[in-house]
Amino acid sequence: MNPRIPLTATLPSDRELRVSREFDAPRSLVFKAYTDPALVQRWLWGPDDWPMAECEIDCRVGGAYRYVWRNPQLGDMGMGGRFLEIVPPERLVVTELFDQDWTEGETVCTTTFEDLDGGTRTRITTTVLYSSQNARDNAMKTPMLEGWGVCFDRLDDLFPAIAV
Length: 164
Prior knowledge:
Elements: E1 8-10, E2 16-23, H1 27-35, H2 37-43, E3 52-57, E4 64-71, E5 75-87, E6 91-98, E7 107-116, E8 121-129, H3 133-140, H4 144-162
């Protein structure tokens, strides 16, 4: 499960993780892939044996989202949150909390979508604010970044099929 294109990950503060990656798609399409449940369900899952079984998105400020991944041997892993800020196609701010709270409480995820090369390409940057430095450091010990990379590779593969 190694991503084809590596992520850029930094630790801008003692509670934050920042991840960036570029895509060969316009930001309106990348933003749509982040907010349309039918599209999210096609790319936002990690290993092949953890497909997303449920995806609900109420994309409005204050609206909720919920994702559930299902493994035949290990069961379900769910998470959800609320939309705090939506500026299409530039910025999303959401809360995030897993059912099995391994991150020591809710996180706040801010994702920006930046035009590159005259709008033909997009850089996304997600900053995750954890409840504590310990929570962030424990998250960094998991294969989370590798999972994000695999998801983003899957998103790359989706763009040709959804481009209009």
